[in-house]
Amino acid sequence: MVTVLNHPLITHKLTQMRKIDTKTKDFKQNLDEIAGLMAYEVCRDLPLKPVHVTTPVAECDTFELLNDIVLIPILRAGLGLVNGINNLIPTAKVGFIGLYRDEKTLMPHEYFAKFPSNLKDAVNLVLDPMLATGGSANAAIEMVKQRGAKNIKLVCLVGAPEGVEAVQKAHPDVDIYLAALDKCLNEVGYIVPGLGDAGDRIFGTK
Ligand code: PRP
Ligand code: URA
After folding, report:
1. Is position 21 annotated as part of the catalytic site?
2. Average pLDDT, the chain
3. pLDDT tens-digit profile of 137-150?
4. Which residues pair with 175 in a beta bridge?
5. How far is CA 1 from CA 32, 57, 111, 140, 171, in A?
6. Sequential DSSP letters for the chain
């Protein structure tokens, strides 16, 4: 399933990020805010369990989240989505996957991995602003599955049709959430119109 989160606030903030003149501070702030808005929608169908609590006034049968939530940013750019989601889900655990995309071959290369225990019973949110060829997302999802994860959602800001198709083909069980589905990839594997190199724009490199 692919969900494109059409919401005026998300669209407006993403437009600010797309602008070539938007500097690091505003780029990061808009990403942070979009991440929070996306989290609200991504978590819409999370399962709940019944609990009994005592309020200051009375006994109460109510619900709380059934599963742990694990945020798994793909370094570096995925880090830009962590704070906004963590603000809504402060109990979330965080794992890390270090991948960089070779500029010539566009193939992902792993350089780091660190996960909390028990991905198997958790809802695992793999985070990366950019879904271009889908190579990085597919590699990350594979790494998470190898650690036993069953419930995985991929949360990206901007996707290209090529990347969406690649992830759907390799991992049909993984739901994909996007703030925008763009037109295509260019000859060097950048999303068009996209927003450029997300990692460089978040961290002020280049
Ligand atoms: C970017 C982006 C994704 C990947 C997308 O990361 O953040 O991880 O490219 O491309 P793909 O779908 O074709 O794999 P990059 O490798 O530039 O690393 P960075 O986040 O450290 O800048
Ligand atoms: N990675 C990025 O940061 N931007 C793109 O457009 C494609 C891959």
Report:
1. no
2. 97
3. 999 999 999 999 99
4. 153
5. 24, 43, 29, 18, 11
6. -EEE---HHHHHHHHHHHSTT--HHHHHHHHHHHHHHHHHHHTTT--EEEEEEE-SS-EEEEEEESS-EEEEEEETGGGGGHHHHHHH-TT-EE-EEEEEE-TTT--EEEEEEE--S--TTSEEEEE-SEESSSHHHHHHHHHHHHTT--EEEEE-SEE-HHHHHHHHHH-TTSEEEESEE-SEE-TTS-EESS-S-HHHHHHT--
What is the dihedral sign for C-alpha 153, 156, 158, 161? negative
Residue whose CB lies within 8 A of the most ligand 1 atoms, among 130, 176, 206, for a mutation test: 130
- Ligand 2 closest atom vs CA 199: 3
Q: Please work out whether the CB of residue 157 comes within 6 Å of at least one atom of ligand 2.
A: no
Torsion angles phi and psi, residue 30, rounded to 5 = -65, -40
**What is the model's pTM?**
0.97
Pairing relationship of beta strands 184-185 and 191-192 according to DSSP bridges: antiparallel
Q: Bridge partners of 98? A: 75, 112
Active-site residue, 32 included: no
**Is the CB of 191 within 6 Å of ligand 2?**
yes
Our answer to whether residue 11 is catalytic in this structure is: no
**Strand 69-75 versus strand 123-127 pairing type:** parallel
Tell me which residues of the chain have a pLDDT lower than 70. Answer: none
The one catalytic residue among 11, 62, 105, 205:
105
Q: Say whether 201 is catalytic.
A: no
